[in-house]
Amino acid sequence: MSAKKVIIIGAGLAGLSAGCYSRMNGYDTCIYEHHSEPGGVAATWRRGEYLIDGGIHFMMGYKNGTDLFNIYRQLGVADPANFVPAKSYGSFIDIEQGRQFDIPLNISELALDMKMLSPADAPLIDDLATAVGAFSCKDLTTYGQINPPELTSGLDRLTTIWKMRGLFKYMSGKYTRSMEEYTSGMQNRWLADCLNNLFTPQSPVWFVIMLLAIAGDGQISYLSKGCKDFALQIEKRYKDLNGEIIYSATVEQILVNNDCAIGVRLTDGTEDFADYIISAGDIHNTVFHLLDGKYIGKKLQNKFDTYELSPPYFAASFGVKHTFENENVFNTIVLKQPLRIGKREIHQIFVRIFNYSNHFAPEGKSVIQAEFETDWDYWDNLWQTGKEKYTAEKERLASEILTHLEMLYFGLSQLVEVTDIATPCTLNRYTLNYKGAPEGWRINLQNFKEETRRTLEGLSNLYLAGHWVSGGVPGVILSGRQAVQLICAKEKKPFFTRTT
Fold first, then answer.
1. How far apart are CA 166 and CA 157, in angstroms?
2. How far is the C-alpha of 54 from the C-alpha of 444, rounded, in Å?
3. Amine oxidase domain: which residues (predicted)?
4. Which of 13, 27, 75 is closest to 242 using CA atoms?
5. In whole angstroms, what is the distance from residue 438 CA to residue 310 CA?
6. How many angstroms separate the CA atoms of 438 and 315, rounded?
7. Which residues pair with 261 in a beta bridge?
8. Contact (CB, 8 A) for 12 and 380
């Protein structure tokens, strides 16, 4: 009897994960990928001697002893050589005021530094530090998402509650508010802004507490060779499991018969049929294009109507003859003068320095990257008006960013050998992400409260995975795994995993 087949749309981390777990469970598989290489949003590319990384900022749970580390082992990426331990959470720099605040990983040290900066805010600082301490030394790297909600039993929930005992007070009440609300009464507004940007100002307080605890436990690292290499290792694991993958193959339509997904049609007219389809790409594209909007359902339609998308980014990367020794990897910089993009002003940029590995540049050189949130419509309109205006605006902003960086690193512009610029249109072109949204919906209080379904109303044998289902690297990888768990559950067969 031949094995049943699973077709997977997209070779990002979710699709590759789904492919690996499908093969582990005996399904024939084929992944169709729009781009010419794997990774999706987790992308790197060469510019001369320099490697530009446009994807994963940091990894969690890279040490043995966590559920996430076991997932890495199953996907073939647990090699310690893949990871460089983080030494700091980052820095906040105000160019105008000439001040800098560094965020150490140790919460006691951080609390002491904050109270020295603002004694009047000691009560809130102590409250935050106490909460982080409560979360410390607990495995939080998978957020309790090893199994999909659809397969989580009452006993499973009780077990989770028991493991999380003592933490629920920090996941309710004021800790469910946004960081922006939580810090609204602080006397020192500079410190409040620093805390708000530990992740995003819209993030729930408990989520930021959890991140600080994971960082303090030494479970945050950088990818030593960049995110594409990480994706290629999962692709290798998938191929070693005899999985098939086809690149430069864009799915044009999901084929349906009697409200059951039965296959796909590619843009070249090729059709392929399977018992199950896992769409691990953009959900908007899946629902409104591949399925012609027929199976969206009220809840998902409401999310598209009322939820904010994750904001797209503009990123300028510079390959320079400088190593940035002793500089933090992550830096939030408040600009002396705002960048102006259409009607919008950008008052701060996020600067990433790739000084933690020799894989990004030759000896004595490095890559420095600046990025900020921007508007899809602005860039899409420029793109539509023609290459000349679009290119001119990209180059203007890159030049102005370099001028701002010069205020911190004197003479930097003279050391630049390579400039690379990416806009929301760049991401959309290579990944088909709707309006250049890198993570589906914006991470905020509303999005945390309501989970995205992994199936579509009225359509059987199709499962969803990826950023729109669950954000962040752990969530994305787990979403691919969960899709296969749901297939196994439908077939009333056990779900298997194995390590390399």
1. 15
2. 23
3. 13-487
4. 27
5. 6
6. 13
7. 256
8. no
| 270 token code pair | 């090729």
Q: Convert 377-416 to b/e letters by CB count within 10 Å (16 or more is b).
A: ebbbebbeeeeeebeebbeebbebbbebbeeebeebeeeb
- Interatomic CA distance for residues 310 and 435, integer angstroms: 9
Q: Which DSSP helix (H) or strand (E) runs through 90? A: strand 90-94
Q: Which of 221, 199, 197 is nearest to 58 (CA)?
A: 221
Going by their DSSP bridges, the two strands 83-85 and 28-32 should be labelled as unpaired
Burial of 118 (0-12, 13-18, 19+ CB in 10 A): middle
Joined tokens for residue 330: 């992550």
How would you write the pLDDT of the chain (500 residues) with one tens digit per residue? 568 999 999 999 999 999 999 999 999 999 999 999 999 999 999 999 999 998 889 999 888 888 899 999 999 999 999 999 999 999 999 998 999 999 999 999 999 999 999 999 999 999 999 999 999 988 877 766 788 888 877 666 666 666 666 787 888 899 999 999 999 999 999 999 999 999 889 999 999 999 999 999 999 999 999 999 999 999 999 999 999 999 999 999 999 999 999 999 999 999 999 999 999 989 999 999 999 999 998 888 988 898 889 999 999 999 999 999 989 999 999 999 999 998 899 999 999 999 999 999 999 999 999 999 999 999 999 999 988 999 999 999 999 999 999 999 999 999 999 999 999 999 999 998 999 998 888 877 666 666 778 899 999 999 999 998 888 899 999 999 999 999 999 999 999 999 87
Q: What's at 149, amino acid-wise?
A: P
Does residue 110 sit in helix, strand or coil?
Answer: helix
Distance separating alpha carbons of residues 401 and 435, to the nearest angstrom: 24
Element (H, E) at 17: helix 13-24
Domain ranges of the chain: 5-39+227-308+442-490, 104-218, 313-422
Residue 300 to residue 291: CA distance in whole angstroms: 14
Specify the pairing of strand 260-266 against strand 271-273: antiparallel
Q: Are 458 and 259 in contact (CB under 8 A)?
A: yes
CATH of 5-39+227-308+442-490, one of 3.10.450.540, 3.40.50.2300, 2.40.50.100, 3.50.50.60: 3.50.50.60
Residue 8 parent element (H or E): strand 5-9
Picking from 204, 208, 134, 133, the residue whose alpha carbon sits closest to that of residue 168 is 134
Report yes or no on whether pTM surpasses 0.90.
yes
What number of other Cβ atoms are within 10 A of residue 174's Cβ? 11
How many angstroms separate the CA atoms of 474 and 113, rounded? 31
The span from the CA of 478 to the CA of 489, in Å, is 16
Could you tell me whether strands 90-94 and 99-103 are parallel, antiparallel, or unpaired per DSSP bridges?
antiparallel
The H or E element spanning position 472 is helix 472-490
Quote the tokens at residue 390: 């679009």
